[in-house]
Sequence to fold (174 residues):
Amino acid sequence: MDPQQAYVYCPRCKAKLDLFEYKKVTCAKCGWLFYFNPIPCNAVILENDESQILMVRRATDPFKDYWDLPGGFVEVNESVEESIVRETKEETGIDLDPKELQLFMTTWDRYLYKGIKDYTLGLIYSARLNNGEKPIPADDVSETKFFDHDKIPWELIAFDSIRMILKRYLSLKH
Ligand SMILES: [Zn+2]
Fold:
């Protein structure tokens, strides 16, 4: 369901909510107001010296066992760059230098979790990896692998937005 359908009662005063609009919901009783803003998340395209792209296999739903880029949700009190450094370390063990990260593009998608399709805003960066950097899968990742540009597993990519981003990235390289 959409997030608009997931809110039934006001979380502040517990009154039944009925003032739903496309962008927001307001509690008529106490005035509580909630905007359905997108949740910021990140992903990073990491290429090694052989121009292979590092991908991670998701160990959890949504899209368990599908291939994804390293990344995740931006947490409170961190920049997008800090978030990418943290997520990449958690999922692959690789230490990135935040100064090496270049913003590639932004996009949007939906993230289905426990029956609710959240709105997401994707902030996609790219960086080069030092030669010989060896990723080790951890956290919510079961496998890591470098893919040649012509061997990307298009049918097994987790999110439509990630597939679109990789196609855009490769179209600029070739
Ligand atoms: Zn209320």
Remarks:
- The chain has two domains: 3-35, 39-173.
- The CA atoms of residues 116 and 134 lie 36 Å apart.
- Residues 10, 12-13, 15, 27, 29-30, 32 surround zinc ion (CB under 6 Å).
